[in-house]
Specification:
- The chain is mostly helical.
- The protein has one domain (about 1-85): Rossmann fold, CATH 3.40.50.
- The protein has helices spanning about 1-10, 40-45, 65, 70-85, and strands at about 25-30, 55.
- The chain is globular and about 40 Å long.
- The N and C termini lie far apart (about 40 Å).
- InterPro entries: AB_hydrolase_fold.
């Protein structure tokens, strides 16, 4: 577990390179996420040209796809349908 935490804490910050990413993106953010703040999610959205909104997942913490699939899957499916036409 220590190695995993160390890896996450020491990974490269690519915030200044987000503008280079041109593909469509979806940002889903749990409203109870204490690992990544809403401000950080907003910075991600602002930096990614292909992300036009943040989809809040009400009551979800980090990894909301595992705990709140019923809220995550519908917008994710709609996004995938839209970008794969």
């Amino acid at each position: 577990m220590k190695a995993t935490a160390k890896c996450l804490l020491e990974r490269d910050d690519i915030t200044d390179r987000l503008g280079e990413i041109k593909c469509p993106a979806i940002i889903l953010h749990g409203t109870a996420d204490t690992a990544i703040s809403m401000e950080r999610a907003e910075a991600l959205r602002a930096g990614l040209a292909g992300a036009d909104t943040i989809i809040p997942i009400e009551g979800a913490a980090h990894a909301s796809n595992l705990t709140h699939a019923q809220l995550v899957n519908p917008p994710l499916l709609e996004f995938l349908r839209r970008v794969t036409k």
